[in-house]
């Protein structure tokens, strides 16, 4: 087991922003080893290409945040290589899917959609924390981060709508804050934060880009580099908070 090499775990790395973050992590630090998870690694051609380009530095792991046993297995796989992680990053999230989308009014709220959105956006990162926080409990600086969203801010909600997505991200932020308090007691150098990536040109945002000015729509490359820069600058005193891609705090 290699306990000295720097280690990162990226959940939801098969495409879009997760894939780009994984790519940049590998490019910026030749000593870093990355575990990248997705629901079907065998079908993740872009991740397999990255793995071939970085032999011995990228491990592909099956993980479905709606299946806790798969998270537990992924943690067991990680533990075979190292007992510590310097970064655990949750990227996967859902805004719309087959048969559902952001609600414009109360009449559009459906229990099945609510359960799906909460299970992926809120419960998923919490369950990853449950099984991976032990790897963050070491003397060096470590970060647990989850992609959140500005619309998860209760104080910033001026337009209404999007019930499931807004509330799931607000719940995720509360889970992150609570995790930060627990980690602060047992691992003073561990940081837990939420990250708002901006409006990124990915499948998640495509149906809703019509009213987004071109100058504010970020490419995955731009958002990933900005988020990694924010992560680099975080201190334990900032744990439990949410920051956007500029490094500015998103208030609860």
In total, the number of domains comes to: 1
Shape: globular
The CATH superfamily name is NAD(P)-binding Rossmann-like Domain
Strand order of the largest sheet: 3-2-1-4-5-6-9
What level of helicity do the residues show?
25-40%
Structural class: alpha/beta
Radius of gyration: 17 Å
Q: Describe the largest sheet.
A: 7 strands, parallel
Intertermini distance: 41 Å
* Strand composition percent: 15-25%
- Helix and strand string, N-terminal first? EHEHEHEHEHEEEHE
**What is the fold-level CATH name, i.e. the topology?**
Rossmann fold
Quaternary assembly: single chain
What is the topological layout?
Elements (H helix, E strand, L loop, with lengths): L6 E5 L4 H13 L4 E6 L6 H9 L4 E5 L5 H12 L7 E4 L20 H22 L9 E6 L15 H24 L3 E7 L2 E2 L16 E2 L1 H14 L8 E3 L8
Helix pairs in contact: 1-6, 3-4, 4-5
Structure description:
There is one protein chain. The protein has 6 helices and 9 strands; from the N terminus they run βαβαβαβαβαβββαβ. Strands 3-2-1-4-5-6-9 form a 7-stranded parallel beta sheet, with helices on both faces. It has a two-stranded parallel ribbon with strand order 7-8. The chain is 37% helix and 16% strand. α1 (16-28) packs across α6 and α4 (111-132) runs parallel beside α5. It is globular and about 55 Å long. By secondary structure, the protein is α/β, with parallel strands linked by helices. β4, α4 and β5 form a beta-alpha-beta unit.
């Amino acid at each position: 087991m290699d306990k000295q090499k720097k280690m990162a775990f990226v959940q939801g790395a098969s495409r879009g922003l997760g894939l780009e973050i994984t790519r940049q992590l590998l490019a910026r630090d030749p000593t870093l080893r990355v575990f990248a998870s997705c629901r079907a690694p065998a079908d993740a051609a872009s991740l397999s290409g990255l793995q071939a380009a970085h032999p011995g530095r990228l491990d592909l792991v099956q993980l479905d945040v709606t299946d806790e046993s798969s998270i537990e297995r992924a943690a067991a796989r990680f533990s075979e290589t190292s007992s510590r992680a310097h970064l655990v990053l949750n990227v996967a999230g859902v805004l719309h899917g087959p048969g559902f989308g952001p609600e414009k009014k109360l009449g559009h709220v459906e229990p099945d959609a609510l359960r799906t959105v909460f299970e992926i956006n809120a419960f998923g990162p919490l369950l990853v924390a449950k099984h991976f926080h032990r790897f963050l409990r070491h003397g060096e600086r470590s970060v647990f981060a989850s992609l959140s969203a500005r619309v998860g801010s209760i104080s910033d909600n001026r337009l209404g709508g999007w019930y499931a997505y807004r509330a799931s991200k607000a719940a995720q932020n509360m889970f992150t804050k609570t995790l930060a308090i627990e980690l602060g007691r047992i691992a003073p150098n561990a940081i837990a934060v939420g990250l708002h990536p901006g409006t990124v040109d990915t499948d998640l945002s495509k149906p809703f880009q019509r009213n987004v000015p071109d100058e504010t729509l970020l490419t995955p490359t731009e958002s990933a580099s900005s988020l990694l820069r924010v992560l680099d600058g975080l201190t334990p005193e900032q744990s439990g908070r949410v920051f956007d891609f500029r490094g500015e705090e998103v208030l609860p």
